[in-house]
Write a sequence for this structure.
């Protein structure tokens, strides 16, 4: 029997939008994630052109404070010296340095995040002097925008130049998308970019609809997690 | 039918016929035709009527540079018929007439034109003052451009950002070579042109006797550009201005592009100038380039018998093109007395066309009705400004005129560049261009095609180098002699020798204004409105400068020019607005509220339920929701409340400074009211601080105030440098308040790890536990004055929490309540709402909240101001009042408290309490009115005065037994 998002306590703010697009769900991290929309093969091609994928069920966390960098490095985290750069970790987790005193930790597209689990379980108010947990999984919804047309899509909603020549893989852009604060992380490959986009969880429905509207002229469509996994 | 066969008509597709309607009549054209070219192909030469004298007008520039061709298309006024392409079933109407296009009743104005000089309305209608509204109504009816249809539906407009290394504006010969050169250096180039195809003059003008060199150059350059991967071409695109750092707005279709260019090449060309003579605006009189565009681009023969008047070599090319198109050329009139011979003049001579040198046009003779030309009178020039009285008359239906050229330099002007005009020669040059901007082609005054192409290459190399690419050094720009002489401006005794076609300004209008003393070019423009119409002086500014210079004896450069400001071309409100991005925030339970029939209301960017139920029973619904809280159990979504995490060894000290109360000794597991004042002692926010750990407070703030509180906190701690981290978590947690005598019973059903008994979890306590398996922070707070629990859970689980509590409370009669019921309940309890019961000046003592100020700490933000006010005395005070008499008119919020002739305060909150059965409220009164039992008078709707009694707060459950049970 097909999984309904309401069977899980954790629910993406977008689950109704995904249902309306014909999403098929699987459980991941105690939440229902849209695995596909009924056309796995077509979605893989779509992902190469322009796809939008809700990743809100994937693991993520954050840390901030004046001792953030020391504490994370003490836990074995590889952290960039400069802000706005993402460092891939050995388990597939990525750590984006947002500021000298703030980092965002993203799990992989398979749903894993061993490092996140370790950090969350290690951290406590007693042990972390000057490094504080940020509930990123609850603060931000998470989308992936994929495909060769994704930079063109961003030109309609974002003032930052996200073309290949201006934004390299692993770079982080903290900007405004359709009038919402957003964190954009450039991933994927030189040929097929993948942009992780994290923004205000309460504005998820608004931004989802705005993005679908903006991507219409490029033939962009929602894709499931499977298509994203195939792409990356 | 004036349609020509191929090879004429490079823009039209003869295989696709398109029908549309003009003035209700069916007209057909080809795909690629503009409205104007299709109409002319069908012999329709009058497209609209002029602004002031309602004279018939036809094509002038044939490239959207004038207002003659403005028509109404569908619901859109002021569409340029020589720019917009035809589509099937387009409904086109002419503008500015009363009656019909052929018989415009307002054309009678021309008979009184001598009484309507420029500025007449400044002098004629201001007395008597009562008369102006009547005149205004009449003037607005007969003036104006087009009619706005207020029922027009919203169009879909949007915006897009663009980024390039090099931008080239104008894809004529200079622009194309500039783009190619920059692209060869490795730069990404955006080549922009307002026309449907690139090529500029190469597509229609004639550069030699046989007319082949331009077309060959065009084919070569177009092919080269198509093969250059670094060049992106945008046609039908207008750059409407220049802003700092090469920020350029581009309009294409319904989209506004916001372009940031590393460097810029302006190759915008120049505007051919009309000649000035009597009736120079009749349909059939057009610029030479317009005739060439009609022939070459649209395959339309402009007329059957033409006279070409020129001040330059290009007029000869126009005459040759007219001949090639099968028109008869009665003569060429050259204002130059001794024009140089070249291959074009020779070609013309071989085709036996008479050339009248040293002559000019004096008058066009209209056809009956004035809708066209039937002849032209030509006189010999006795001097640059004087024509002989004797004239020769030539029959013709078309006059093509090529006066001189004015640079299309608006972008360069806006960027800080300057244009110098050469007296007498008709030439000009640009200089003082800022860094990262180059100019090329005829906009700089360079005219010869070879030199234009070379100058484009130079500009392209310079632009690439400016954008950081390695190139050879650019060579010096070439200069050639101007190809035009200054054409004569000779006033005609009968007037109608138009300088500005937009505003129907004649030479006498300009001269009269100069006589009146408006000799500064800026004053002249504003008094006459010369150059202020839709074409923005493209054809009118240069003659006005020349007329002013002639009157004052100053040179053209001393006379100066008017200021160019964006937008250069027409810009719709839709383009400026774009797609409206209006972020809206939904709580985790938003759709559950909708499912229950909630009427939603905005709270900042959030949407909140105002009440649940039918709008027709709004008050009953609110009362029922409130009653259920008092008697049973209710649940309200409080996710929109602000949430801030204050963590670090100095967290308590930080709160102690930010808020008026004391927090250093606040026990872990307890919450405490927080009241924030600014430096002036004014209340700006409130909430509660929950101490979760010795170094960790979870602080709530008002929905609309939290962003300001967060910024204020960051600002102060940047100065204080306390060891504290501040995190904004408002959206991270969903929250509900479950309140009412049965709330403990309901929560207990879904919670097994928090002891909810009053002994273990007293009022103002804070606990952590689980509700239906969801991790939650429990707060015992009492905003509505009943036993209640505020539960904060991770946002992603908010909906599941809501579902669990609704299910658990079903037996107990749980029902959701909205913001309105909450406001009612809190008022019964006497709680204030910041910004409703306070204003931009309210201090804690005025709001009767001195109890929330700690007197034992050395500092909090605003302390000094509050202390000063307490020492100097209050001027107002917030009190509770009630009106027991049910017959009395109920006051409303903001109704005034009056004593004698003095306003002493105002009502801030008022409601008829269903619980207490009387009207209760809060109001500011004079301090001496604040004593309990005093009567205050409130002026209600209609001026009636009602009396209320000052009473003790709270109105409901004064001992707090119900909320602390």
């Amino acid at each position: 029997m097909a999984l309904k998002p309401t069977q899980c306590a954790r629910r993406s703010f977008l689950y109704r939008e995904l249902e309306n697009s014909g999403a098929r769900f699987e459980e991941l991290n105690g939440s229902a994630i849209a695995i596909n929309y009924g056309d796995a093969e077509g979605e893989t091609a779509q992902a190469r052109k322009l796809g939008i994928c809700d990743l809100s069920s994937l693991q993520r966390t954050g840390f901030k404070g004046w001792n953030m960098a020391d504490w994370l490095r003490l836990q074995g985290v590889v952290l960039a010296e400069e802000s706005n750069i993402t460092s891939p970790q050995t388990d597939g987790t990525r750590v984006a340095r947002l500021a000298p005193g703030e980092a965002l930790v993203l799990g992989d597209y398979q749903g894993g995040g061993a490092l996140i689990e370790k950090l969350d379980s290690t951290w406590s108010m007693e042990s972390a002097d000057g490094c504080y947990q940020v509930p990123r999984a609850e603060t931000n919804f998470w989308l992936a925008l994929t495909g060769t047309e994704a930079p063109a899509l961003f030109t309609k909603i974002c003032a930052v130049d996200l073309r290949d020549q201006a934004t390299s893989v692993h770079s982080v852009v903290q900007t405004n998308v359709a009038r919402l604060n957003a964190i954009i992380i450039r991933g994927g490959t030189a040929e097929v970019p993948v942009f992780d986009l994290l923004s205000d969880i309460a504005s998820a429905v608004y931004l989802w609809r705005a993005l679908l509207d903006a991507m219409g002229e490029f033939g962009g469509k929602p894709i499931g997690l499977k298509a994203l996994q195939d792409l990356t | 039918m004036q349609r020509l066969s191929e090879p004429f008509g490079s823009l039209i597709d003869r295989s696709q016929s398109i029908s549309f309607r003009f003035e209700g009549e069916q007209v057909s054209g080809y795909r690629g035709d503009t409205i104007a070219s299709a109409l002319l192909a069908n012999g329709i030469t009058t497209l609209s009527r002029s602004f002031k004298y309602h004279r018939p007008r036809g094509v002038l520039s044939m490239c959207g540079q004038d207002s003659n061709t403005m028509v109404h298309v569908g619901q859109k006024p002021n569409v340029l018929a020589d720019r917009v392409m035809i589509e099937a079933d387009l409904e086109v109407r002419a503008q500015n007439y009363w009656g019909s296009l052929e018989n415009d009743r307002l054309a009678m104005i021309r008979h009184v034109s001598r009484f309507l000089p420029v500025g007449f309305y400044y002098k004629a209608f201001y007395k008597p003052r009562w008369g102006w509204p009547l005149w205004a109504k009449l003037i607005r009816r007969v003036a104006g451009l087009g009619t706005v249809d207020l029922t027009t539906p919203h169009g879909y407009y949007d915006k897009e950002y663009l980024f390039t290394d090099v931008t080239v504006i104008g894809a004529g010969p200079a622009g194309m070579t500039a783009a190619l050169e920059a692209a060869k250096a490795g730069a990404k180039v955006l080549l922009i042109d307002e026309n449907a195809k690139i090529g500029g003059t190469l597509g229609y003008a004639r550069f030699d006797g046989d007319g082949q060199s331009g077309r060959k150059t065009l084919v070569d350059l177009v092919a080269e550009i198509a093969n250059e991967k670094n060049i992106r071409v945008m046609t039908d695109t207008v750059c409407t201005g220049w802003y700092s750092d090469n920020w350029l707005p581009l309009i294409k279709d319904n989209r506004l592009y916001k372009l940031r260019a590393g460097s810029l090449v302006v190759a915008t060309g120049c505007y051919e100038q009309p000649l000035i003579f009597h009736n120079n605006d009749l349909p059939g009189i057009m610029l030479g380039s317009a005739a060439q565009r009609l022939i070459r681009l649209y395959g339309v023969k402009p007329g059957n018998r033409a006279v070409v008047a020129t001040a330059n070599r290009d007029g000869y090319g126009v005459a040759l093109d007219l001949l090639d198109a099968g028109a008869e050329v009665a003569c060429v009139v050259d204002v130059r007395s001794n024009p140089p011979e070249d291959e074009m003049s020779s070609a013309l001579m071989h085709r036996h066309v008479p050339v009248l040198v040293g002559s000019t046009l004096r008058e066009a003779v209209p056809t009956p009705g004035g809708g066209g030309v039937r002849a032209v009178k030509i006189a010999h020039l006795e001097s640059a400004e004087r024509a002989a009285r004797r004239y020769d008359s030539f029959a013709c239906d078309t006059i093509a005129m090529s006066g001189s050229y004015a640079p299309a330099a608006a972008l360069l002007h806006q960027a800080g560049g300057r244009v110098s005009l050469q007296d007498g020669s008709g030439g000009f040059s640009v200089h003082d261009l800022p860094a990262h901007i180059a100019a090329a082609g005829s906009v700089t005054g360079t005219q010869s095609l070879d030199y234009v192409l070379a100058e484009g290459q130079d500009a392209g190399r310079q632009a690439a180098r400016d954008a950081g690419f390695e190139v050879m050094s650019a060579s010096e720009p070439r200069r050639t002699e101007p190809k035009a002489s200054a054409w004569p401006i000779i006033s005609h005794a009968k007037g109608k020798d138009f300088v500005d076609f937009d505003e129907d300004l004649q030479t006498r209008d300009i001269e009269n204004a100069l006589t009146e003393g408006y000799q500064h070019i800026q004053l002249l423009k504003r008094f006459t409105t010369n150059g202020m119409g839709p074409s923005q002086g493209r054809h009118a500014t240069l003659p006005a400068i020349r007329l002013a210079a002639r009157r004052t004896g100053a040179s053209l450069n001393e006379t100066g020019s008017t200021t160019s400001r964006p937008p250069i071309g027409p810009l719709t409100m839709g383009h400026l607005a774009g797609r409206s991005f209006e972020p809206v925030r939904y709580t985790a339970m938003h759709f559950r509220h909708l499912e229950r029939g909630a009427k939603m209301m905005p709270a900042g960017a959030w949407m909140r339920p105002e009440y649940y139920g039918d709008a027709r029973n709004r008050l009953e619904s609110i009362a029922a929701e409130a009653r259920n809280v008092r008697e049973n159990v209710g649940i309200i979504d409080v996710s929109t409340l602000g949430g801030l995490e204050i963590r670090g060894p100095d967290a308590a000290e930080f709160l102690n400074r930010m808020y008026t109360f004391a927090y250093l000794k606040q026990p872990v597991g307890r919450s405490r009211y927080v009241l924030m004042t600014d430096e002036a002692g004014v209340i700006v926010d409130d909430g509660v601080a929950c101490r979760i750990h010795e170094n960790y407070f979870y602080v709530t703030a008002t929905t609309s105030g939290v962003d300001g509180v967060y910024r204020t906190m960051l600002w102060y701690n940047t100065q204080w440098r306390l060891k504290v981290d501040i995190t904004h978590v408002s959206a991270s947690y969903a929250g509900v308040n479950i309140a009412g005598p049965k709330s403990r019973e309901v929560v207990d059903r879904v919670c097994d790890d928090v002891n909810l008994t009053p002994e273990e979890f007293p009022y103002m306590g804070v606990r952590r536990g689980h509700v239906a398996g969801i991790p939650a922070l429990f707060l015992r707070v009492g905003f509505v004055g009943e036993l209640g629990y505020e539960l904060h859970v991770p946002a992603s689980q908010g909906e599941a929490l809501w579902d669990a509590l609704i299910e658990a409370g079903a037996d107990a009669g749980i029902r959701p309540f909205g913001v309105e019921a909450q406001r009612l309940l809190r008022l019964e309890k006497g709680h204030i709402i910041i910004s409703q019961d306070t204003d931009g000046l309210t201090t804690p003592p005025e709001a009767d909240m001195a109890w929330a100020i700690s007197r034992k700490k050395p500092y909090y933000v605003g302390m000094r101001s509050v202390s000063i006010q307490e020492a100097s005395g209050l001027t107002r005070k917030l009190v509770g009042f009630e009106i027991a008499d049910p017959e009395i008119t109920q006051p409303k919020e903001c109704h005034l408290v009056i004593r004698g002739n003095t306003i002493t305060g105002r009502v801030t909150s008022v409601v008829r309490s269903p619980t207490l059965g009387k009207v209760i409220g809060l109001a500011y009164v004079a301090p001496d009115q604040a004593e309990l039992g005093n009567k205050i008078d409130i002026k209600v709707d209609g001026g009636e005065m009602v009396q209320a009694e000052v009473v003790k707060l709270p109105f409901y459950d004064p001992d707090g037994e119900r909320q602390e049970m």
Q: What stands out?
A: Residues 83 and 99 of chain A are 5 Å apart (CA to CA). Chain A is about 25% helix and 30% strand. The interface with chain B takes residues 6, 8-13, 16, 31, 56, 64-66, 125, 129-130, 132, 134-135, 137-139, 155-159, 161, 163, 165-166, 178-180, 200-207, 210, 213-214 of chain A (CB under 8 Å). Helices of chain A lie at 15-20, 40-49, 68-74, 114-122, 136-139, 150-154, 204-215, 225-231.
